[in-house]
Give the backbone structure.
Amino acid sequence: MDFPIFHLEFLGNRMLIAITAIIHVLINHPLAVGAYPLITLLEWWGLRKGEPAWDKLAYRIVFIVFIITTTVGALTGVGIWLTTSLVAPFAIGSLLRVFFWGWFAEWLVFISEVGLIMAYYLTWKRFATPRLKRLHVAIGATLSAFSWLTMALIVAILGFMMNSGAWTQDKSLWSAMFNPLYLPQLAFRTPYSMFTAGLFVWFCIFFVTKRDDPIRPRAVRLVAIWTLAWLPLVVLGALWYWRSVPAAMQANANVALLTQAFSQWHGMFIKIIGYTVAVVAVMALIGAVRPRALPRYALLVPFVLSIWLLGHFERVREFIRKPYVIADYMYANGVRVSALPVYQRDGILPYATYSAVKQATAANALVAGHEVFMLTCSRCHTTAGMNNVITKFEHLYGREPWDHEALVGFIQGMHLTRTYMPPFPGNEAEASALATYLRSLQPPAPAVSAAPAVLTANR
Amino acid sequence: MLTDFIAQLPNFLAQVATTEVPVPHDLEIPLPIPEWALKLWVVPVFLLHIFFVNLMVGGALMAFVNEIIGLRFPRYDRLARCIGETVTVNKSLAVVLGIGPMLMMNLLYTIHFYSANALTGHAWALLIPLIITVFLLAYLHKYTWETWTGPRKGRHVLVGGAVAALFLFIPLIFLVQVNTMLFPDKWSQVKGFFTALQIGNVFPRYFHFVAASLALMGLFLAGWFGRKSFPVEEKLPEFTRPELRRHFYRWTFWVSCAQFAFGPLVFFTLPTQGITATVMLWIFGAVFVAILVLGLLWKEIHESDARIGRRFWPIAALFSLVVLGMGQGRHVYREAALAPHKEAIARKTAEFRSIELGTQMRIRTGLGAGDALTAAPSGKKLFAQTCAACHAVEKATSAPSLVEIHSLFKDNPAGIVSWAKAPGKKRAQYGPMPPMAHLGDDNLALIAAYMLEQGKGATAQPTAAP
């Protein structure tokens, strides 16, 4: 209501955030959080054994990780913030106010992390004496700790958006951060980052070493053991998370209803965990015992599986959060729960700063309907692109001209039948205007009577 | 008539003003720390970020220009390479140091910042892809310097050119954003990035910024190459340290002189609404210090090789003062320009909050929010809201019709209620029906009665008009 509306008609607004976030997480977990500790381990191993070949290998891999994390990795992280501030300024603005100190701490940690990344990479060649080399390994270890800490803080914020825990009552930062899903999430993401880093580094080894390089099988063995070692923790973390989600959801949703889509998610998660862990375990065992047996592209299978796993893992946020953007406090369209009755009584248009009309009437129904759509539906729906509301209504009411009353009824009760949607924040006149607008967008029904010959010919 | 009109005028004008300048409500959650504390920090933190942005932009431009000169005079190619090496480091610092000021701006100017964002939305959405591209290109440029030579040199220069061009363009998006947020009275005219370019004084500010980047990078390089620990003999054997110092001092000097043209241009094209005595004090104080800086630079340039460089730190300190003064001046301007609008927002927010609290109180004491909410639930309305999406009277497209339901449950409305609370799976042609237990038994009983009535009407008198 209080910001000009940015709307991407074809891609859909949420898609813009989703794409940025997915790229970010897929880089952040295996590369920023997982790869630096593993690379430090390789470096330390070489130092302990007194074999420069390990060091050379680690340096080549850190170059790749350095380039990706300081460009796509870091920028997509900022990008989540920027895209959210376009699509849901009310939400990000509120979150920043709740989480100011968390965000501030995150900033300091992030500065340290980037400083350490640059120190680690740029001093690699210069720190050549054994004493300096030990210092360098220590930088690597500190960097690993800070990368993890960056993630740990951000996950608190993500967790908060899903389930605000006690925050809605006491409004304190600590209850916001230690919400019920925080620790289970972290317990999953941490080992996940580590084992996918194993897969990534393993893959890199093929590209930075020659086929007959004696270091190759030895490095593969080490990385395979690393990957294998994290698997049990992945399973434990996933199970903990899997068990915490329904409880958190039930406590959270105003209608304690587990949707069908969620039940599917829940069943599927366990299956994907099973597939991924089984495949990775077999591969890592082969890698540990017969490092030369696996061709490089075989690694793509567990890699794809683990991406699928993470994608599936992240999806739960959608179920839990909807219809809220901040649980129990604000709906996804920016309407605060406690302001809802005001809009339902007076209408939303009188309070909408940028609306062209302030009152829905029969005369301005199309304009008012469009404004109401933008205000109340457009954060989740488009009228022609992703999650297109017109095709949704077609599925419900068919191709013949829709019944006005039916649409008005649906709109006013949409939160009752579809618990992933917020209650309609408007009055009767606005629901009616919205229905008029939506009906104006309905594609003309197939002209059955006009061309019967063609129709029969087609049958 | 005329007197009437004149008497009405203030009212009328006030109305015009309120309809033209959008006055939104602020967010409900209060600021997490006092506003003055944010204001105290926002300028220094922002300047720290801008410092590295300047070095990054100025560095990319200077590396590009020197590489081109280097095509004829090879020693400049090596100089360009040494300049280019700083860009990739400074860019990482610029990004990471940008987060804090952005956080503070978001808090201090929530409404203004995000509104300007949304108004220039597509450009804003392009920022991240553009920055990622230019960063990757900058690395490509840096790590192919030794390999893309000879016939491939052209390609290398081209990449450097692309880096410079992108680094020139990206700040414009930010500038348009922070400029747009200053002028709420123009928001209704802004229809995206290009129209936003036309409000306020974007271009003078932009040239001022680019020149500042070049001047700052010049001073930075005078110190960077001039420091004892920089291996001039190894990396730039065709230059001497005093020569490098003088070269970049001179560069800083002339670019700073040009600022004496761009600066006034910015000042005189600034919309007057925020210009106050304090703003003038900061700006002209900074200008005065800038003159001192020029004097010192001039002395350094004409210093002997043995003595050049002694004034570097005093110059750097005074230069920082100039930047701080300008930055603070800008901040005070922004505060003054936005003060009336912020006040209007605060008033409107408080007004809405009282409406909201009043409504909540009525609801809590059982009075209801108003008509729409107090009206007794009717079977008809509930049915329309919760069942009609799937069930129709006669048609049975996505669920059994009411006629069929009537035939099954005509003597058993409670059966409908218990089914609706936990639906089973009977008919293969339909999907499952969602459970409706959350509606409660009473509401479901109302719905059941309504359903049966409708279904009965349709079977008993199929042809009669209702």
Summary: Residues 215-252 of chain A form the longest helix (38 residues). Chain A is about 70% helix and 0% strand. The domain at 13-331 of chain A is CATH 1.20.1630 (Formate dehydrogenase/DMSO reductase fold).
